[in-house]
């Protein structure tokens, strides 16, 4: 299948009309010239946690762009993931299962009209591809905060030059530090709640001739805050830089991440409230998997709730009761990821510069989930009846293993040419992503939930497929500097072409029918424009505006093409338009950015029951269900008033967002036997998108070497399903940190510091991450309890 949008001629005509209206309207709009010094002076405010406005509020950027500075990154709890740090930015609704955001399947992000899988992520010019936990490259596996220079986010539309097939507009760019010119390093050690231990070490070679480099490592061990199980992460980074004689540089970087953790369950509101009749009596935010195997008792034995024993459901099968799946040891995740990048930055002439990056990623790992006896027996019987050999009858609770491996390799190249009042940029991105997934259920010794897996005894097979994605993206952009460079106009466009194939056994039905399908799809758009301008009203104030269009690879493509028979139609790509108008200011005591926006994305994907076209078969598969529109406003700023003697400063982010469905869902079936109905979703609020978000803080520097901060974050009420029939209550979390030792050194140490972080000071009990649904009650992950960390660090 191939999906192509409007004809190039009509698209060009529309874009030209838009550009003409921008030029002729004498209204401020945006331009982006990131490498040119800002026409706005640096922020006069100084302080241990205040940065220049050009970084914090995105001076001269074409779109609403804000940054998390290095100062803020180093103030966060040690080990917090780069994804969870986004919660400090305006408009970003970040939910996590734990205080550090370590548990991958417990993270969620939404901004404006988009979720985590519709946001593009980059690391030092390297596109991170999909954010899927299975097979993707989620950014939190690839960064340590201590090595980051800044995190820059565009909530509505990233630069047209940035490579991504996942983004429908939002782009988050992570930039690591350059190697230091002097030899030395840094080290830290952290102790915290839930038996947390973390160490970090970074060694700098200093500059040796044209060479400089560093290596770093971090190690985390701890317990899950909710229930039994542990986390274990080993992370290594390195960078080598070679300065070229012509003023350019060649740099090599590598990241290696080794992660192992145990799962914790999502729960419904009824389970949270203790009204679900849980056989083990679990309830509240501590609702978790079991830390001990319940005693097996004979079939028919009465059970008094809560119980520590489970009666057999099949006589003679000791662990046949499905509730043995609540034991924790068969709920684990293991990942190993390796990333390598080589980047050349070089001037070709005085007016022409070239940047190119080649990268290679290798990934592998597995996830484990338990499967109860009855489910395994039914699948085993069906596959044996279909003629599959080499299977073994289930013995009790089965060990369900999902294996993954794959490689991703690509190259980006960009050239820029400055002439007259123009800066012309052009570039290309090429990538090939190969991914292999397997899934099967295996016996354990005696069928015991605590028994060793018997990988030589498969009970039934579920998946064994390979999927590939071949991506080509091209962009062209011209930035015009007019009116003594006070007005900068940007005109650009990109093309995106993604070829997709999935081949092999995608689901259980493929094994039962003996089919091995190979499915091809293509999504492309030859003209995705971005236009805008930025106008410097004076040296301290700017007005900006932008318009952009985007297309994305259907999120979760493997799940989409695995959910139904090969005859089920593939989806159209999701597409979006983003319009922004904003103002930013940089004054002697404050800086601020304010933006209003309107966003629409079409062809939203959702899994529903429907009749497969061309056949009478009813299946559950992913379909395009209409459009979503979002509008709102975002504010970000910091203020250091003179009247308080420069000892106190404030920061705040405030966002208002209204995201609504624009269409009803036609021919919806709640089950295979239900009659088709029209689902009244038009005008409903998109679930998990709060209307209001606020984060604010106050920082106090009472004396040299002491910094204290307290901050609060408020998330408004959120709907949990398409019909808006259930709500997750809003909540406010208060955090604080105390830094001691800025500027203090002793012996071989240039600086020695101590920091205490307290998250959720008042131990707020709330429901955080939502697994949204269409019509039914959702499931949730409770937010973490109060956590405390103590970190001792030194530079040498």
Tell me what you see in this structure.
This protein is 7% helix and 50% strand. The chain has 796 residues and is mostly beta strands. The protein has one domain (2-292, 327-795): Beta Barrel (Maltoporin, Chain A), CATH 2.40.170. The chain is globular. The model is unreliable at 6-47 (pLDDT under 50).
Describe the secondary structure blueprint for this structure.
Elements: E1 2-4, H1 8-24, H2 53-56, E2 65-69, H3 70-75, E3 92-95, E4 108-111, E5 114-115, E6 120-123, E7 126-127, E8 148-154, E9 171-176, E10 184-192, E11 196-204, E12 211-223, E13 230-243, E14 249-262, E15 267-268, H4 269-273, E16 295-297, E17 309-311, E18 332-347, E19 352-371, H5 373-385, E20 398-419, E21 422-444, E22 453-482, E23 487-505, H6 508-513, E24 518-538, E25 541-552, H7 557-562, E26 574-586, E27 590-602, E28 605-611, E29 618-624, E30 628-639, E31 648-661, E32 665-668, E33 677-679, E34 692-700, E35 706-715, E36 718-719, E37 727-728, E38 731-740, E39 751-759, E40 767-771, E41 779-782, E42 787-795
Parallel strand pairs: 1-24, 6-9, 16-17
Antiparallel strand pairs: 2-8, 3-4, 4-5, 6-7, 8-9, 10-11, 10-42, 11-12, 12-13, 13-14, 14-18, 15-41, 18-19, 19-20, 20-21, 21-22, 22-23, 23-24, 24-25, 25-26, 26-27, 27-30, 28-29, 30-31, 31-34, 32-33, 34-35, 35-38, 36-37, 38-39, 39-42, 40-41
